[in-house]
Amino acid sequence: MSIEDGLFLAAELERGDLADAAYVHGALQTYEDRRKPHTRQVSEQACWTGRIFHRLPRPLRPLRREATPRHILSRLAEIDEVERRAGRAPMV
């Protein structure tokens, strides 16, 4: 998530003049407002996943390897879009 955070923070900051304190404040607020729901969701998912992985009955343990949270996969498309806007090839 820290790499993802850095990418989205850079995307917000590169849109304006970093010498303009009001712009920087607004960009940081936009970044924070945008990231909080995702961070909350990932944290809740990690808590839920941890409980399941550590308390799953033995016969069901093979199933835990097949779960991939959709919201994380959706972020990959968003990262690719930031890369395209910046004129870079999407990350693979």
Distance between the termini: 16 Å
Which ranges are low-confidence, i.e. pLDDT below 50, for 5 or more consecutive residues?
none
Largest sheet: none
Following the backbone from N to C, one meets helices and strands in this order, namely HHH
Shape: elongated
The share of residues in extended strands comes to: under 5%
Q: Give the tally of β-strands.
A: 0
Task: Give a short summary of the structure.
The protein is an all-alpha fold and 92 residues long. It contains three helices and no strands. It has one domain.
Protein architecture, described:
The chain has 92 residues and is mostly helical. It has one domain (2-85). Helix content is 68%, strand content 0%. It has 3 helices and no strands. It has helices spanning 2-13, 21-55, 70-85. The longest helix has 35 residues, at 21-55. The radius of gyration is 17 Å and the shape is elongated. The mean pLDDT is 81.
Identify the notable features of this structure and list them briefly:
mainly alpha; 92 residues
Reconstruct the topology from this structure.
Layout: H1 2-13, H2 21-55, H3 70-85
